[in-house]
Q: What sequence folds into this?
């Protein structure tokens, strides 16, 4: 009895550890990306403009808001607060980056130093696009996993969304409470 | 009866506990939202502030800047009638810009000095974004500050001499503020003027705007932002074409494209 009881929750637990890893990886990357940009908002705005997707003025707002949203999303994912919503935001960010890079790649725009002699010199920007897309796809998978299975250890959510526990001297109502959706 | 009362009490307690849980979730959620909104607000505020500071009393427009703020003119006032306008778009952190500069920079500046072309230097700082530093911007500020003491062209060349082997290492403040002026013999009052301009980032607003205008023109004319790019009378002169000619054939090539 005690053996099976100990074994089943641990078997149930392994996806939760994967979620912990996924949200930490995505969270740290997004947080660092935001921190690198937040001190240089001019550069952040300019890099949004270089993708030539958004109108000139809109790019200024996106370039300013993006690092702050990234920092917030990163912190929420790392701490496991509103994990599912944060993972949705993180996944959308990654999706936007992938679309941006793919579109720039497809249009043959090199967001890097130009090509002095085309063909002769390998354009650094061009060769990096597949790698960047691969990296962001991996991060997107982390995000999607976390959206599907937001439960994980060491998460603020475990306290925040803790089920209502009845007083100890009413065991019958505790079982009733168990049927309630906890999330 | 007592059973009923106890049941009611338990239900009340359960409801209170649920309400408490809900309040906790809403409270934390609202807190997170407020913090993010404040963050965005501060970001926009800081951004506006830095732009205001750039256009404030400390702001300096380089004396040889064009009136539209797009470029610095090399050897102004000696240009012959009908000479083609050559615009050079570059970023101080771009290795190919250095290559172009070493091979053709001298020819371009002497053509400007003889009045055969009207030479506009258009500094970009877009590589800062991809290299995660601010070296292009600071180098641009230093060069335009050097214009206030009449040493723009020389300073421009010297920056490329100091360009690090590895793209992305950037320029140190010491190089831009001390070594390069020393190498160019900027001393005394000129040095004080230059260094105060650099320390206060007096030309930052000008350089930032120059970069924005450069991106706009490259996006509309070349449909892509890359450096080095050369425009003759507002049309692209492919840098690969320039690579085909010797420096002494550059003027003919420019005239063909004019």
A:
């Amino acid at each position: 009895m005690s053996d099976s009881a100990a074994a089943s929750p641990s078997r149930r637990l392994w996806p939760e550890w994967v979620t912990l890893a996924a949200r930490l990886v995505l969270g740290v990357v997004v947080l660092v990306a935001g921190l690198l940009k937040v001190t240089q908002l001019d550069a952040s705005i300019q890099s949004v403009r270089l993708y030539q997707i958004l109108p000139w003025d809109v790019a200024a707002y996106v370039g300013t808001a993006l690092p702050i949203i990234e920092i917030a999303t990163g912190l929420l994912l790392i701490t496991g607060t509103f994990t599912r919503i944060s993972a949705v935001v993180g996944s959308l960010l990654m999706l936007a980056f992938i679309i941006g890079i793919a579109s720039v790649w497809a249009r043959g725009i090199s967001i890097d130093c130009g090509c002095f002699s085309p063909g002769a010199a390998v354009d650094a920007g061009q060769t990096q696009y597949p790698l960047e897309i691969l990296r962001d796809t991996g991060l997107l998978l982390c995000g999607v996993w976390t959206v599907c299975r937001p439960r994980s250890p060491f998460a603020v959510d475990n306290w925040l969304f803790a089920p209502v526990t009845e007083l100890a001297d009413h065991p019958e109502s505790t079982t009733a409470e168990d049927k309630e959706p906890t999330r | 009866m007592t059973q009923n009362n106890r049941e009611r009490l338990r239900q009340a307690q359960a409801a209170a506990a649920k309400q408490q849980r809900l309040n906790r979730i809403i409270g934390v959620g609202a807190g997170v939202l407020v913090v993010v909104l404040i963050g965005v607000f501060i970001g926009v505020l800081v951004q506006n502030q830095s732009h205001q500071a750039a256009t404030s009393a400390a702001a300096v427009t380089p004396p040889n800047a064009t009136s539209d703020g797009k470029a610095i003119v090399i050897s102004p006032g000696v240009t012959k009638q009908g000479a083609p306008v050559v615009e050079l778009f570059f970023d101080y952190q771009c290795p190919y810009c250095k290559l172009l500069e070493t091979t053709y920079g001298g020819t371009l500046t002497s053509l400007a000095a003889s009045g055969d072309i009207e030479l506009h230097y258009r500094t970009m700082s877009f590589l800062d974004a991809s290299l995660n530093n601010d070296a292009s911007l600071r180098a641009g500020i230093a060069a335009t500050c050097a214009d206030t003491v009449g040493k723009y062209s020389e300073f421009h060349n010297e920056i490329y001499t100091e360009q690090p082997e590895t793209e992305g290492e950037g320029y140190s403040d010491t190089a831009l503020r001390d070594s390069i002026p020393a190498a160019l013999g900027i001393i005394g009052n000129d040095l004080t003027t230059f260094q105060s301009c650099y320390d206060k980032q007096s030309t930052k607003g000008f350089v930032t705007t120059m970069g924005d205008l450069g991106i706009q023109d490259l996006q509309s004319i070349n449909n892509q932002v890359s450096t080095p790019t050369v425009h003759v009378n507002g049309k692209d002169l492919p840098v690969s074409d320039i690579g085909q000619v010797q420096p002494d054939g550059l003027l003919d090539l420019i005239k063909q494209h004019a």
Observations:
- The CA atoms of residues 114 and 132 of chain B lie 40 Å apart.
